[in-house]
């Protein structure tokens, strides 16, 4: 059994320019749990209040597969472990497992930590021995292990033995600087596995473009834990990319790890992380990139479909991706049918409705729409095209005004909105005046517009009050077009019972926000009616 | 000696969305020649007129290191080779070397080519025998070799023998579908090298995230030619990335190939290709990404500089890249002093100026400012705090109005801007009227504001006309605050001579854009004055 240990939220989060909100972290945690990842390293509780908040709120999630892991340094020298505030924070989290990192390279011990080699071993030993009293599983991350082993193999192994003797459940060899080549990994794992008895793991970095193969080599050499991140997120050249590792490990190498049927969620977890980071999803990612199975024109569609093996190294559907063929729309229709089925709607792949929906989606995608993270917008599109949802209101106009009167004064905004509800609905509700024209203010134009829109709708649909926006993201597509580029707005809303994501695209950022806001409120009204 | 064979212009160019103009191809050819690449595969002359044009014009370049290679399929069946138009085009190029590809997988021969296995061997033999009369070097690309070998090893080897007997100078084993794992590459190269005498090469694809290691393994097993592309450009998950292969091969594994002193050009060749493709240069590329040697905050700047080996797997300058240390909330005075030094300003770490600058930065960062990608804003902040820059203009107010009149009509925007220039500047320029109030329209509010601001400033500073916005990004900070969250706008501008990034943060997205736009234009004016 090979355990997948995800550190997207901790090591991945150390990437330049990356910042996950608490909401983001919880959404990713849920998605990783659905995928079936074994461990999720959520952060370093003793390092900052945001990480601490994660450990408190994550308990509220109903996780089925993943164990939450807290990360930490060893205890500080010179104080008793019971008095170490960082370690105390760790203990307070009461998670199922913790990972403690320690230096395995003598140079780092003397130059960076500035302690003796012996003291370092004691810190490792004492920390792990202590934590074993509070946690089922305690893992040891041997930092800079490979470089340390190359320079002073005896000392590097001593750090592992200190952890092992203290009761560590797994010793993870870390290629912290990412400089280790594949044959060095083979040699070092061979040597080390003869010297320690505890199970081994690997934590590779991609500075030499070797992280994936180093991770798989470790497993071939008997390692039982692979640490990595989604999309290889991480500082410098990134951490080991779990989206490459998992399909290779499970589908190609046949190891027992995440169940093979769960792998179809890989693509959506991968996309979710890109969405939450507000970054383009790299098209050339192996397995999970949108180009990964995009066949160039000239390849006969029928050849690929009759015998996909001739051109594809694995079936893309195994990991939730899909074949993209510029000539044919056949792959598109299967996707629509599958997604509709997930929503409880059975459609015929060859029906005109599916064709219509596919055309709409292609049109929108050409403008920059993506439905990952905005499934509610997709559901609305589907149901509206199928005539399964009603028109709740019509926009009769909005105006948004922003002013900044001088360099010293803050800008402010005012919005007016005109909406009208259909006659049938007005009759049902016994409302005479179908029309509302109202105004609101805000610090910014989108805030003002959002307030004005809700105000207008609450008059007819009081349940709108329950809706709260929990996430608002803007991405600029085709950024090279400068201020003429198209903003894509992604919104997450909640009414306390459920959460849903909607999207809007327009060269006008206010209009893009409007589209996403309107979808968010329409979705609420539609779900209320569905009961 | 390991020969580097670049196919950026041929296989790389097959990537979805990639198109190189003839100019681009010649610039890349020159850059690759400067780097010292041994072979440059420029295209398939028989396939289209653009490729043909390349081979005619490339003769005009004065190349010192690289041999130009033309690519082609084998001759057509059923006609004499002398009458094959495609082969004739190949011969006309009169380049030093050609590469011919043929099928090595029996499945492809029968299903895709629809000829007999025997016929296929003849096509290979006849084509190469014929071309050896015209070209010094003829290479054979054995397509789908690894999959072919796994299914019918005897036949796969027969295709190699056919090429060898015809006089091929190198037999390149191609992992066309990219599905081969590293240990399979080892086994297959071991087996094949016993069965043929001609030198071997490798052409790997990255579908399993294995292309780099597969290429290096081939060399360890005796291959003398590696085919790949700059930045791993190529269809699906890309070709083997030469920017990872070359440093590993030459610096780490010590093979004789491109001279080590040439490697410092690697970073700029890599950047050039991204520039010509008009794509962001991926920051996390190993070796050549801007993050490849970017150290996170918390790592003592002094530790890295005293002993780079502790944190860096190679010296970035060997490949033309540089260490980047972020100005971030955890960094301190050392960082400020270093960044100021990069700008040519010497500061005393313990001076009150540095303290003041640090406080400003911390204050801004707490609001969400990041200076990565916005070094111009940082430079402005530094110089303004040190009293080293002047006030070019003052905002007297802006107003931005967005309207959408119905669901069917598109939104549009109008902005008005009032600016005033200081008396001294007006006197210098001989301008009487210091004040300008003007308006502009746009599809969106930021576009309208940008236009109005430039219009107003161009009246006083004509050089503003040279400034173009090349990138506009918005990120919402603390997204969980919904529409009350703070947008951070990142802008990249250029005036044809230099490029610079600026940033603005505000709960009002228009104001945030304003701040970034103003910094972008102030920076231009400041640099113009600095000369």
Automatic annotation (TrEMBL), chains A, B:
InterPro entries: 2-isopropylmalate_synth_dimer, AIPM/Hcit_synth_CS, Aldolase_TIM, Citramal_synthase, LeuA/HCS_post-cat, LeuA_allosteric_dom_sf, PYR_CT. GO terms for biological process: isoleucine biosynthetic process; L-leucine biosynthetic process. Transmembrane segments: none annotated. Its EC number is 2.3.3.21. It is an enzyme of class 2 (transferase). Gene3D superfamilies: 1.10.238.260, 3.30.160.270, Aldolase class I (3.20.20.70). This is Citramalate synthase. The lineage of its organism: Bacteria, Pseudomonadati, Aquificota, Aquificia, Desulfurobacteriales.
């Amino acid at each position: 059994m090979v355990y997948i240990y995800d550190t997207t939220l901790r090591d991945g989060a150390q990437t330049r320019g990356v910042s996950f909100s608490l909401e983001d972290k919880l959404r990713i945690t849920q998605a990783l749990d659905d995928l079936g990842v074994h461990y999720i390293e959520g952060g370093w509780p003793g390092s900052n209040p945001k990480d601490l908040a994660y450990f408190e709120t994550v308990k509220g999630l109903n996780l089925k597969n993943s164990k939450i892991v807290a990360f930490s340094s060893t205890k500080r020298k010179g104080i008793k472990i019971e008095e170490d505030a960082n370690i105390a924070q760790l203990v307070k989290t009461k998670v199922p497992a913790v990972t403690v990192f320690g230096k395995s390279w003598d140079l780092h011990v003397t130059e960076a930590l500035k302690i003796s080699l012996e003291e370092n071993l004691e810190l490792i030993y004492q920390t792990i021995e202590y934590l074993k009293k509070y946690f089922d599983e305690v893992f040891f991350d041997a930092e800079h292990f490979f470089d340390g082993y190359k320079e002073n193999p005896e000392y590097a192994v001593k750090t592992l033995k200190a952890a092992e003797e203290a009761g560590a459940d797994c010793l993870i060899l870390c290629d912290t600087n990412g400089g280790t080549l594949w044959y060095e990994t083979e040699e070092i794992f061979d040597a080390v596995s003869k010297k320690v008895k505890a199970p081994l793991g690997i934590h590779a970095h991609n500075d030499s473009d070797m992280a994936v193969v180093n991770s798989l080599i470790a497993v071939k050499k008997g390692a039982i834990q692979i640490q990595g991140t989604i999309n290889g997120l991480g500082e410098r050249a990134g951490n080991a990319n779990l989206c490459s590792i998992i399909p290779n490990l499970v589908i190609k190498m046949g190891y027992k790890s995440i169940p093979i049927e769960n792998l179809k969620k890989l693509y959506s977890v991968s996309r979710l992380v890109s969405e939450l980071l507000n970054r383009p999803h790299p098209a050339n990612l192996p397995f999970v990139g949108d180009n990964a199975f995009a066949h160039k024109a000239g390849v006969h569609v029928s050849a690929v479909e009759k015998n996909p093996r001739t051109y594809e190294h694995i079936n893309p559907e195994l990991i939730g991706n899909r074949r993209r063929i510029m000539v044919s729309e056949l792959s598109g229709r299967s996707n629509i049918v599958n997604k509709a089925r997930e929503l409880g709607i059975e459609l015929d792949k060859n029906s005109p409705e599916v064709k219509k929906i596919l055309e709409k989606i292609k049109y929108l995608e050409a403008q920059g729409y993506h439905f990952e993270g905005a499934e509610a917008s997709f559901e609305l599109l589907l149901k509206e095209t199928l005539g399964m949802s009603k028109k709740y209101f019509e926009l009769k106009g909005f105006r948004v005004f922003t002013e900044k009167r001088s360099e010293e004064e803050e800008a402010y905004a005012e919005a007016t909105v005109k909406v009208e509800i259909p006659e049938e609905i007005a009759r049902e509700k016994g409302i005479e005046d179908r029309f509302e024209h109202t105004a609101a203010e805000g610090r910014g134009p989108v805030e003002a517009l959002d307030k004005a829109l809700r105000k207008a709708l609450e008059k007819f649909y009081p349940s709108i009050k329950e809706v709260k926006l929990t996430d608002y993201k803007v991405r600029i597509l085709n950024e090279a077009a400068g201020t003429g580029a198209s903003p894509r707005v992604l919104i997450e809303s909640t009414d306390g019972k459920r959460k849903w994501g909607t999207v809007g695209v327009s060269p006008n950022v206010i209009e893009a926000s409007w589209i996403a806001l309107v979808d968010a409120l329409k979705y609420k009204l539609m779900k209320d009616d569905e009961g």
